[in-house]
Protein 1
Amino acid sequence: MLWKGRRQSSNIEDRRGGGMPGGRIGGGGPIRLPIGRGAGGGGLSGIIILVVLFFALRACGIDPLQILAGGGIGGGQQIGFEQQGNSQVTDEEAQFVSVVLAETEDVWNGIFQAEGQEYSEPRLVLFTNQIQSACGYASSASGPFYCPGDRKVYIDLGFFRELAQKFKASGDFAQAYVIAHEVGHHVQNLIGLLPEFNRQRQSMSQVEANRMSTRVELQADCFAGIWAHYTAQKGLLEQGDIEEALNAANQIGDDTLQKRTQGYVVPESFNHGTSKQRMTWFANGLRNGRLEDCDTFNNPV
Ligand SMILES: [Zn+2]
């Protein structure tokens, strides 16, 4: 990706090597990248109705973002969680993350603006080893995640080395895909989808929750594809970038991960989607950059 010299985000919190400030509040669990762990428990129909409504309203030309944005169902639960100052990062790896985050800000600001809405930018926390988030304590071992409670993406940059070595997904655009996927969860939070999912999953069976989680995750992949679409339009992609992202989606599919870690697959436990599904939905977003192509709730996935 041709990222050098481009704008860096002012929403980076560099807490690498630092302590763990902040207290714990509620607001749903963290939405993780899958690296071999099961999802939490949790009702299917409600979120489908919500999402059906979301897309139905869109189709009618009514703006669901308008309905959901102003503290309605979706509003998020940002209740005075400790805000760190902005960090100007100086190392190349963090600068790349900062530029990618800034590029997601530009794309999603534009998409929300086109809907007459304002995009509330997420913050991104860089940490090492362990971190306290509004979703609780997390260690690097759990991989990058988005916490709806404080609207922050958390990444230990060591994960990118793991991505390249252990998951065989190297390249800067594989990393960009991971960031764009987590930002996709933030968009889902803003439009009210994540809060609804987190509420409904309490009453779902594990199998139902896994199925619904898969649809949420595939939509985040699709949103990452939308971001990639606009990034390509800006001429920022290099040869092989899209393949890097698709390969990453392939390598972190539930089936591929399970085969690697345990040698066999348990489809009922899938909660992020298979490799094929993840590549397909990323490609769906990438194709035309349209939200309506990311309806993982009313289409077969
Ligand atoms: Zn995810």
Protein 2
Amino acid sequence: MEVTEVKAQDGKLVAVRPVLQDSAVVDVGYVSEPGIIIGRLNAFDAKETGGSADVVDVEVELSEWSTRATMVTRGEQRGGEVNIEDAELLVGGGRGLGEKDNFSMAEDLAGALGGAVAATRAVVDAGWYPYAAQIGQTGKTVAPKLYLALGISGAIQHKVGMQSSENIVAINKDQNAPIFEFSDLGVVGDLHKIVPKLTEAIKAKKG
Ligand SMILES: Cc1cc2nc3c(=O)[nH]c(=O)nc-3n(C[C@H](O)[C@H](O)[C@H](O)COP(=O)(O)OP(=O)(O)OC[C@H]3O[C@@H](n4cnc5c(N)ncnc54)[C@H](O)[C@@H]3O)c2cc1C
């Protein structure tokens, strides 16, 4: 499950997957065949490769414990309305926002600027914002005119999804946050104090 890469080692199938809340990546082998891989959402690009493969019916014996779970309901993830790839101006929210409700701060700022809101994987995984807004290695790649990062550390997996932005502005209370290494403008401070004032100032300027 959640496989991000597949490789062959000594003729055997090896799947690569993040573990421990994505703090480490491990190689996983198989004790029997066939090996089944379920990829993490967006970890692989759909590609036509040509060639052909045999489709084989496999006899499956289910253990008694494996049939105890039942499907109660099926649901669609909210967030289809978020279209971050076309936005010229993006306000990215990270764990530094503190809690789900504080995303309204990012939304107010994006609204004042006429842009959209994006998010890091950490906050998407925490259920603070919809997956459709996730930027990065396992999310979307964006290149807006302005990317305004609020409380985002700048992990490499996030950076790969937004580093082509024309201008990157970061607000972070930690002056050593990696995001400052690739920002055009860095503001060291508490976003909870800065963002509401910034939003007010933009609204006032726009009249
Ligand atoms: C295989 C794999 C794939 C991944 N794919 C992605 C991906 O696609 N996208 C992605 O984003 N991540 C991805 N990750 C996760 C990534 O490694 C980071 O964990 C994640 O990006 C961190 O999110 P964050 O910056 O919101 O949180 P944190 O790293 O926790 O950073 C929070 C930041 O907020 C700052 N802060 C805190 N409070 C305040 C405040 N009051 N004011 C200002 N600043 C404040 C802190 O100083 C800190 O720098 C992936 C990881 C793995 C292993």
